[in-house]
Amino acid sequence: MKTLRKARMLLGLLTVAIGCAVSLAAAAEPQPQQVLTLHARSRVKDPPGAQDFRIKYQAVRWDAGKTAIIVCDMWDKHWCAASAARVAEMAPRMNELISAARKQGVLIIHAPSETMNYYLDTPQRKLAQQAPKAEPTVPLRGWCRLDPDRESPLPIDDSDPCDSPGGTRHKAWSRQIDTLKIEPGDAVSDRVAEIYNLFQQRGIENVIIMGVHTNVCVLCRPFGIRQMVYQGKNIVLVRDLTDTMYNPECAPRVSHFRGTEMVVEHIEKFWCPTITRSDVLGAAAFRFPGDRRPHIVFLVSEDEYQADDSLSAFAQLLQDRFDYYCTMVLGHSKEDLSGVEALRTADAAVLFIRRRAFPQEQLDVLRNYLDSGKPLVALRTASHAFSVKGKTPAGLAQWPTFDRDVLGCEYHNHAANALGTDVKFLAEAADHPILAGVQPLKWHSPGSLYQSKLLDEQAKLLATGSAGNLSEPIAWTRSYHGARVFYTSLGHRDDFAQPQFQSLLINAIHWAMDRPLPKPAADRRQK
Predict the structure, then answer these.
(1) Domain limits, CATH 3.40.50.850, in the chain
(2) b/e per residue, 475-512, with b = 16+ CB within 10 A?
(3) According to CATH, where is 3.40.50.880 located in the chain?
(4) What is the pLDDT of residue 47?
């Protein structure tokens, strides 16, 4: 028996030695620098001192070699059955992101708290323990509770956090869920001093955090968001690869998934930006199967009207008032629309794109969506969305007849910008559901009048616009492959500030999905 124990001990030591040698060899071998481009979403008060927060997207470029991922508390089991089920659903998609980031040179730290004994003799555990001690400039904290000097109270009541019956608090976990692969060169630790030492040894400046639970461990753990901010690290939360301990029976009595979104929004306001797995993989953001809210996908790529700001705020309004699930697919590059795969599960699409050519496979996702009879709400520059001026860039594709094929019109030009557009909704269309509650039916838009010949004789004209001696159709409905389509050439940034324009869009989205206009829920936006 003693001989067997000695053999096991020697085998364990040999495994550790080999693992460390592999890690050192990998570190010693020169690696080409790889850059992560992340489209970080935050909420800012602009201008400073403003009452409301504004959604802001900003592209950040991080050296992958100076970046780490912390996987927070993705345990094998949990005392709350619903929570454990969501971890299991999320883990495969999380593993895809981790694998892709690892290949780019990102350090992966697995942090399943309170389970370090399970990993005691692994090279990944030794890797974290053996980093030389570094003295932080700001003292490391323990559990980082809510900081009233920096943030408001959380927007949810998590005092009774489990959303499945029969859950009683106890330590159910023994290790990280096996779906997440721990590879050579990764580290395992739940000790903030070890993680800090490793960061200083590797020159880690940037941290990507994912896992559970956003309102508890992800924020509060000694290696969580608050700590990383205190230590001056650049940090982002992967907002589609996280969850919240929240019971919808508690205030504010929203769905579990909306509760998670509200905590994410709190983090974006007070602590750090967020990203989605799309930023690393280019794939659609992850969505829990149990989230049954209607899904609206916004496709935005233009550089004249700041539509990413306007439609982000509008999507937030839909989430707050109508409990919709909204996905923003932003073309941060004129030649890429990564994340368009979200259309595969969409109930409606909103399009605001101007003169873009994209890879054929991305454009095909939109074609397939429309051919399948799914609804579309198209705004302003959508009439020339996929028609670039000049030759099509190599490797990309256009859809120059999109206006004629899908919108039923032919875009020519626009009137002088200085004239704006006098908007007039037709009296004979006043009973149309899209115009319900839209008041006044006449107003002036600062956006130039688009000259678009309406080709579809079956289209239902709702509004006209005039500028000087010109008069043009500016809003109508039609059918495409059996689906409802609404188009308006309105959509100037200032249009979104008009209540009547917001009502028009809300009505159009519900009409397109053939859904009755619901009674708005209480506006839960946090000021």
Answers:
(1) 32-281
(2) bbbbebeebbbbbbbbbbeebbebebbbbbbbbbbbbb
(3) 295-512
(4) 81
Q: Which amino acid is at 160?
A: D
Q: Are 480 and 418 in contact (CB under 8 A)?
A: no
How far apart are the C-alpha atoms of 223 and 218, rounded to whole Å?
8
Name the DSSP class of 397: B
Q: Tell me which residue of 340, 310, 309 sits closest to 327, measured CA to CA.
A: 340
d(CA 289, CA 210): 19
458, two tokens: 């079956």
Decide which of 3.40.50.850, 3.40.440.10, 3.40.50.300, 3.90.1150.10 is the CATH code for 32-281: 3.40.50.850
Does residue 184 contact residue 123 with C-beta atoms inside 8 Å? yes
CA 127 to each of CA 120, 207, 211: distance values in angstroms, whole numbers, following the listed order: 11, 18, 22
**Contact, 398 vs 387, CB < 8 A?**
yes
d(CA 192, CA 227): 9
**What is the rounded distance in angstroms from the CA atom of residue 314 to the CA atom of residue 495?**
12
3-state secondary structure of 98: helix
Q: What is the pLDDT of residues 287-300, one digit of tens each?
A: 999 999 999 999 99
How far are the Cα atoms of 185, 424, 443 from residue 499, in angstroms, in the given order? Answer: 55, 15, 11
Residue-wise burial string across 437-454, b where 16 or more C-beta atoms lie within 10 A, e elsewhere:
ebeeeebebebbbbbbeb
| Dist CA 480 CA 525 (whole Å) | 36
Cα–Cα distance, 485 to 473 (Å, whole number): 15
Specify the pLDDT at position 48: 80
Helix (H) or strand (E) holding 192: helix 192-202
Taking the CA atoms of 169, 173, 176 and 177 in sequence, report the sign of the dihedral they define: negative
Residue whose structure tokens are 């030695």: 17
Number of CB atoms found within 10 A of residue 85's CB: 15
**9, 63, 312, 345: which is closest to 208 by C-alpha?**
63
CATH of domain 295-512: 3.40.50.880
What is d(CA 311, CA 298) in angstroms, rounded to the nearest whole number? 8
- The type of residue at 124 is Q
pTM for this predicted structure: 0.89
pLDDT at 105 over 60: yes
Concatenating the DSSP letter of every residue in 282-323 gives -SPPP--TT--S-EEEEEEE-SSS-HHHHHHHHHHHHHHHH-
Residues 6+ apart with CB under 8 A from 82: 162, 163, 164, 167, 256
Strands 450-454, 409-414: pairing kind: antiparallel
Cβ burial of 456 (10 Å; 0-12, 13-18, 19+) is middle
The more confidently predicted of residues 320 and 3 is 320
What letter does residue 326 receive in the DSSP assignment?
Answer: E
Residues 6+ apart with CB under 8 A from 170: 79
Q: Rg of the Cα trace of the chain? A: 26
